[in-house]
Structure formats: C-alpha cells, structure tokens
C-alpha cells in the first residue's frame, strides 16, 4: 500500500500543470482534413498561486495530425502574468519544469521551466521544445515580478 501511495505522489509531482485551451486560429486550409493551427492554452503555475501562463504553439493538421501521428513544429511562445495575489504553496526550486505537452507521437515535447531570479525577486518562465536526439533552439521567455515585501521561498 505504501508503494502505491509513493508511486501516486511521484506521478502527480511529475505531471506538472494541466492546460486549458483558450482558443485557436487556422494557419492553412485543408479541404478534407483538419487545418494547421496556432493554439493558445493557459495553465496555472502548480506551485505559485496567482500566476497563470499563456502558451501559444503550433498544431499540425492534415491526416497525420487528426490521427495524432504528426510532429508539431518547435514554434512556441509563453506569457505569464499575475492574475491574483501571489502566494507560494511551499518552498520552490531555483529551476523547475512546470508544464510539458507532447508535440509528436514519440519523443518530442514542449516544456515550460520556471527559474527564480533571486536578486530581482522575479519568476522567469522559459518555453522550449526538446526531442530525444536533438531539440530546437527556438524559445521564448517571460517574467513575473514578485513584490519586494514577499521574498520567494527557495528550497
């Protein structure tokens, strides 16, 4: 029973945030299959109350896209904003993955990593794409300042 509980805790810790789709726009027209799109998703930082991140990323259409076999491009952008009072659910790591999503059938993910800039009391969020063999240098970064009166609790 303890092993099952430990496995559940480990899995929940590695899943990160869950995104909700805000909207999408088509970038190409395909007559008989889904269009290529840019999708905008939002997720809340799992360890920081009051911070939401908006993630735009490419979604490949066509027949492969409809079947979940297409590889999405590495184009992605992130904008994180304070959406309420900032509070921390506990101590946070100086650098931690807070979101990941599959962008191909196998081996490719879009990831968002939170970094802490202690000197400026700021949370920095980086989005990038990786692949088992080689990733992409395409990335985007955003930052959310935390009030100076509220130090970021580091592990």
Descriptive key words:
155 residues, mainly beta, four-stranded antiparallel beta sheet, 8 strands, disordered N terminus
Could you characterize what this model shows?
The chain is mainly beta and 155 residues long. The chain is built from two helices and eight strands. It has a four-stranded antiparallel beta sheet, with no helix packed on it. The protein is elongated and about 55 Å long. The protein has helices spanning 2-15, 62-67, and strands at residues 20-26, 37-44, 48-59, 76-88, 95-102, 108-117, 122-131, 139-145. The model is unreliable at 1-15 (pLDDT under 50). 18% of the residues are buried. Helices cover 13% and strands 48% of the residues.
